[in-house]
Amino acid sequence: MLLLRTWNFPGKTNMAMDVVLAETVKEPLLRLYTWARPTLSLGRHQKRIELNVDYMRQKGIECVVRPTGGRAVLHQDELTYAFVVPASHELATKNLEEFHRTVSERIFLAVRRLGFDVKMEVRKRTTAKSPACFDSPGMYEITLDGKKLVGSAQMRTRDFVLEHGSILLKSHVEEYARCLNLDPDSLKEKFVGLQEVKDVTLEELEKSLIDSFCESFGPAESFTLSFELLNRIYEKEVQFGCPVN
User: Range of 125's domain?
Assistant: First the structure.
């Protein structure tokens, strides 16, 4: 399994990097990353939802449109992951649910080994109309104290499967709700960050995730971004911009 860590890139760069890596690698790759600034990411079909643009500009919250589906996520105080599998890999032949279950199991075990009493619940896909990812349950939901901990989305092509998502360290309910013109009280019991339950560092979570993925996909081999790949990433950034910026 290939491994790439990238810290504090802008939102558009993060989204472009996930796609370029998916188009490039010939074996499973796990990328762990953070964001340069608080960033609201929208699912690719959410471009017309109503955002609190004035609030976001005031708070310096950027906005991007993801290459994947799903609903809006505020990326702030979290560890973000992207797991890429080329079409030639056995896992890529699985349907959306089975692929997601495999990834969720790795995350579940990683968090549990850090001493958190997380649960992985099999839930039906919701038909709720909330624009917020963390306002609604998903399949193979990872929960802590009954609250959602991980939000994820997928992109599938004939060449690869990409799943990326957020593992929360802090929930930032107020900011998340206000970006989406929602009542913060309607969200505060829906999701939680790890650091709101007990002390854990991003580095501890990172190591546990790597160990867990390696158990299923083999030893981690460090992946390096070449100048050619970086150029492709920067050229692709424009595809993921949002009018808030």
Answer: 2-240
